[in-house]
Write a structure and sequence with these properties.
single chain, about 180 residues, alpha/beta, six-stranded mixed β-sheet, three-stranded antiparallel β-sheet, 9 strands, binds inosinic acid
């Protein structure tokens, strides 16, 4: 495994401020209603933990395991469900919480799959959005930050399963010595 030096492009504080703004907007849009937040594993586990704690309307949380990257920096284009929801979303207000929308292939697949379960409403919330890479355009209702075509890690996002624990969003820079 090659490790990289990281260069931070969004700090933990910038992310935290934006997450609070997104939560406020969700609170306004769903005032007086309940929501189901869907955590798309693994990348959105940190984002959803912060977002859920900033939302004040009643929420339930469920987890959907999805794999589309084969552990590298290029989308395989094939979306695989590795873990299904454990609760019904029929008739519920559902928000898919994603870490990043890149080609849009994953979110497009998820929307079609979840619509077959007849939710009352289905919205998308993504911390990051890379418009330059979109293959399947989708309407994202809540976007944290729009970024350039860069491979990023941290705040839940990984490269070969590493770097998820970094508090900010970073780009991979030059290689360090191999240590594993
Ligand atoms: P898409 O199907 O190309 O939109 O990719 C969606 C998924 O690919 C995301 O949920 C991430 O797990 C992963 N991904 C896309 N871009 C990045 C990145 O820059 N860093 C880490 N993971 C990424």
């Amino acid at each position: 495994m090659t490790f990289f030096n990281l260069k931070e492009i969004l700090s933990a504080e910038q992310i935290s401020d934006r997450v609070i703004e997104l939560a406020k907007k969700i609170d306004e849009d769903f005032a007086g209603q309940h929501i189901v937040l869907l955590c798309i594993l693994k990348g959105s586990f940190i984002f959803i933990a912060d977002l859920a704690r900033a939302i004040t309307v009643p929420v339930t949380i469920d987890f959907l395991g999805v794999q589309s990257y084969n552990g590298d920096t290029k989308s395989s284009g094939v979306v695989q469900i590795t873990q299904d929801l454990t609760t019904s979303i029929t008739g519920r207000n559902v928000i898919i919480v994603e870490d990043i929308v890149d080609t849009g292939l994953t979110i497009h697949y998820l929307i079609n799959m979840l619509l077959t379960r007849n939710p009352k409403t289905l919205k998308i919330c993504s911390l990051l959005y890379k418009p330059s890479k979109v293959i399947k355009p989708v309407n994202i209702d809540y976007i944290g930050f729009t970024i350039n075509d860069l491979f990023v890690v941290g705040y839940g996002l990984d490269y070969k399963q590493y770097y998820r624990n970094f508090p900010g969003i970073n780009i991979l820079e030059k290689e360090e010595n191999d240590s594993i």
